[in-house]
Amino acid sequence: MKKLGLLLLPILAITLLLGANAFAQGDKSVYFVTYYSNANTVGAPDGTLRLVNDGDASTSQTEGKPNGNLWASIYVFDDSQELQECCNCFISADGLLSESVDTNLTANELTGRAERSRGVIKVISSSSNDPTNNVLTPGLRGFMTHIQHTTGAGYAVTEAPLADSNLVSAEQTALQESCSFAITLGSGYGVCSCTPEDHDF
Hints:
- With 201 residues, the protein is an alpha+beta fold.
- 23% of the residues lie in helices and 31% in strands.
- The chain has a five-stranded antiparallel beta sheet with strand order 4-3-6-1-9, with helices on one face.
- The longest helix is centred in the N-terminal third of the chain and has 24 residues, at 2-25.
- Mean pLDDT is 85; it is low at 4-24.
C-alpha cells in the first residue's frame, strides 16, 4: 500500500501541473456564433445578446489611460443566410454590453423590415472600431438568451454561452465585405445599434 501511495504522488503532481498550465493558457477565441428565435413575435419575450470584455487585452498602462478596450463586430443574418444588419459595439475592459434582439439587432434590417423571427448572429472580438476591417484580438466572452416556444401559447427563456468557432480568412473577408455593402448601399438600413455599456434591460 505504501508503494502504491508513492507511485500515485508523482502522477498527482504531474496532473496538477498540466492542469494548471492548461488553465494559465486560457481561451484565445476571437469568433463566436449563436442563433436567435421568436424575435419580433407578439407575446414573446425579447432575446438578449450579452458580451463581456474579460480583460485579456489589458496592458500595464498607468491609471486613467484607456486600457484593454475591445469592439464587438456583430453580424446578424436571417434564416435565408442573408446579412441583414452589422455594427461595431465598444466594450471597455471588464465591461458588459447587453443588446436587445428586437430593438438593437433586428429593428433596422437591410430590407427595411423588422419581420425576421429567427436567424444567426456572429461576433468577432476586435481591437478595431470598424466592422469592415477587424483586427482580431481575443478577450470577448458572450451569452445569448433563446426564446423557445412551448406547448400552448407560452414561451420559455434559456441562456447559453456563444459557441466558439474557427474563423478562416475567407469567412472574415466575407463578413467584412457584406457589412461594407450593407453600410454603403443600405441608405441608413442594415446597421444595428449599440446600447450604452453596462446598461441592461
